Amino acid sequence: MLSSTLKNSIKSTTLKRAQSTFSTPVTVSLIEGDGIGVEITESVKRIFAKAGAPIIWEDCDVGPIIKNNNTAIPDKAVASIKKNKVALKGPLATPIGKGHRSLNLTLRQTFGLFANLRPAASIQGYDFLYKDIDFVVVRENTEGEYFGVEHQINDDNVVSIKLITSKASEKVIKFAIDQAAKIDRKKVVVVTQETVQPKTDGLFKKTGESLASYNKDIEIEFELLETYIYNSVKDPKKYHDYVVVAPNLYGDIITDLNSGLAVGSLGMTPSANIGTDVSIFEAVHGSAPDIAGKDLANPSAMLFAGCMLLEHVGLGEYSEKIKKAALATIAEGIKTGDLKGKSSNTEYTNAIIAKL
């Protein structure tokens, strides 16, 4: 049986969308990714096939190109993702010193993926620092310090632009409020550092204040980043009744922290990048080139991201089946090295498949 926390976590990650939006089978653009991406993508494909999930995978190469002096996604990949409206993405590594900005950022800005939904929950059968953790965080996905514009003034001085707009802030805070209502959480906490950056973070906070009456059933509170981090480590359950929403950089920091508190591994953390027309689901960890090709990678984060995708397109019954099999496998002690286990990627994948 799943613990109540795991059931809540499954509910928390659900993105409700009408089944009529997608025809069955659903075609999904598949971005294999770099490093361990090859291995974890193969694991997900095998598990989905065994579960009978009606998915058609359409391979999608997002290898960067330069267009108008900016990093861009190849036209064929853009067309695939726009056509299918959903994609599953493995980890991408940006080449260092080759003039490319982050491909993850490029994808988010290309498709207007304004909200990044990241849950983090304790796992039955795996005890870590805390038990029964259940965080839900919404991260603004297109602006902030990750806007990606820097200027070299001279050899000793550089400037990075931090962009905050009321339009983007309103969209992501409304999304967080809507998400709280969907998963029966009563509060949204808006996290900023507005005492240090009163113009940029101040605008994000002010936008949150303006939405106080957007949903009268959801209470909006405000905290500084440092306060949130202190409280979340001291008493993580404080935020079990909240959906947390934050600007881009802070959201990135918070969600990695939450994963560390819940399971001590980013290898278990899925993510949904939500736009008006397109949504891309991904593992939050990196490409881990040090273990690539060694059959050591944990495919769970990408697998659970795939489950979020299934829920998004109205195929939640397959998501439920896959997650139960994966969590039961971990509870039996079949775990990869990041969870202090000794199983290989193949052994872990095979054990999940055996339960489907």
From TrEMBL:
Alphabetical keyword list: Magnesium, Metal-binding, Oxidoreductase
GO CC terms, sorted: mitochondrion
Keyword Kinase: no
BP term (GO), one: isocitrate metabolic process
InterPro entries, A to Z: IsoCit/isopropylmalate_DH_CS, IsoPropMal-DH-like_dom
One matching Pfam family: Iso_dh
SMART domains in the record: Iso_dh
Domain of life: Eukaryota
Residues annotated as domain Isopropylmalate dehydrogenase-like: 27-352
GO molecular function: isocitrate dehydrogenase (NAD+) activity; magnesium ion binding; NAD binding
Stated family: Belongs to the isocitrate and isopropylmalate dehydrogenases family.
Protein name stated in the entry: Isocitrate/isopropylmalate dehydrogenase
